[in-house]
Amino acid sequence: MTFEAWIVLTVLVFLIVAFLMEAMRPGLILLSAAVIFMATGIITDRELIAGFSNDGLITIALLFLVNEGIKQAGLMTRFAQAYLPHKRNPMTFMLPRVMVPVAFFSAFLNNLPIVVNFSPILIRWADAMKLSYKKFLLPLSYAAILGGMCTLIGTSSNLVVHGLMLETGNGGFHLFELGKIGLFISFFGFIYMAVFGNWLLPGEKIRFAKDLPEVKDYYYNLQLPENSRLIGQEVAGNRIDGLEGIEVHSIERNGKILKPEKNHTKLHRNDDILVTGNSGRLNYILANKDVKLKGMEYLSGEKPEDLKQYEVVLSPRFSGLGQTVTEFNFFNHFNAVVLSIHRNGERITDNLSNLKLKVGDNVVLLAKEKFYDTWRTSQMFYMVNFMQDLHHDKGSRVKWIALIILLAMVAAIVINEIVSYGFGMSLNIFIYVSLAAVLLIWLKILPQQNYTKAVSWDMIISIASAFAIGKGIQNSGVAGLLASDAISIVRSIGPVGVLAIIWLITSVLTEIITNNAAVALVFPIAVVAAQLLNVDPKPFFVAIAVAGASSFMTARGYRANLIIKAAGKYSARDFLRIGAPMQLIAFILSIFLIPYFWEF
Prior knowledge:
membrane, five-stranded antiparallel beta sheet, 23 helices, Alpha-Beta Plaits, DASS-Related_Transporters, 2 domains, 9% strand, repeat, RCK_C, transmembrane, 55% helix, alpha+beta
């Protein structure tokens, strides 16, 4: 191997380690690797900059604006309210009823805003129907993934592969071309979730419509006022006489955690009492003179009826990452008090004040109603869930205009595809997406004051840097080495064996370094593999696109999964248990159907 090849391999190893350790934001990790390649002469400065002018990348940036305009119009919210079932049915029917419409919507819009907008509505709907919200949030994310892999614009990684194909002179994908494989994977994915979802998904199993499943509980940190009648009272069976509908989870006293079910515990004046109850218990606690919420002194001047409970999921743009709850002081920044924090599907039950905040943390806040209006569009939070019915500020006229613009954009792309087949003339998809984005801004559906916040610049930098890294892999000869090794291992199987290896490599990298970076890194290997085998590379490109979109087993590869993990309080084991069969379904169907639809 050449010296350049050793540099590339070393940088790739450090890149993967940096992702696993979450050393920096994904964009910064990938940009660092690209800059090292440029500094060592593996790529030129022009090759580094070229990634930022890629057709697919610019289209992705504009789609962020279209997505935000549709969101601002309230179209997603209205759509979710319309399609959710109004009565309880067996889970075999309810899960597809939730998943199929989301998948259809996701085929034409980015997964992330769909999941962000639908999640709070789905939680409120599940609570109202007395169903476990954990039965539906993970299927929501999976539905968005399945729908996204069916079209060119459904997920950003498809556009990345499309842009790389155009750059290498291989042509690109048509709008619905990937649907030939995506529809099969979606169909069997829906069946899998309908048949096994009730047993595999966490939460109480729903066997009959008359069952009484779990209702979502919330945690409250209570303290006893000086004149409380509860001081000295013994906790009996996790309950306190005088507090209805509330169970004691634990008591923190002098730095120690006491479990009332294991000890006959009497309440002391300075105890921090962690209790559970449904969202309706908040007003009951605020009105009870024998207890007070910890931190309530910050909101002592507010009327209890003016205070609301919110759930927020911290994004990479949250300004307090790495700081403790005490250091950041939510009240100074948001006029809000922290009630609880969930991480990795579990509630942090002790030493909350010294907990360092991380991306994906689910934080339950107590604040005034204006908190929702002020921060619901902020990029500091992936999601703001108002614990009452969500506001809908936009009128029906705005929703109709946004819907017409979205349908016109899709129709124009479809007509362009038809014309290109019949007359050999076609326009870049970028043109139609840019027109839709500009119309949403001109018609004031998308506010111009903060339109730049709608774009995930970290994702843009990640994709552009991944293009440069892919170029470095190609220039250094590493792509040829990896491709030849893969071919030598599966030479007896032929191109299908190489396709399987490319699919698996892309899938594994997606779970480590995000889908957009993974497809860009594997693409040059697929190009060289096709040249060595003397076959058409398009089946390999389809495999990369499908594998890059098939992120079911972890929350790392897709940001939508990260949001769902926090909002639904899922564990890594939940993702692995439910997602592994989904991943296997996608892999098997890909290996059999890709060579059938796209011949080598």
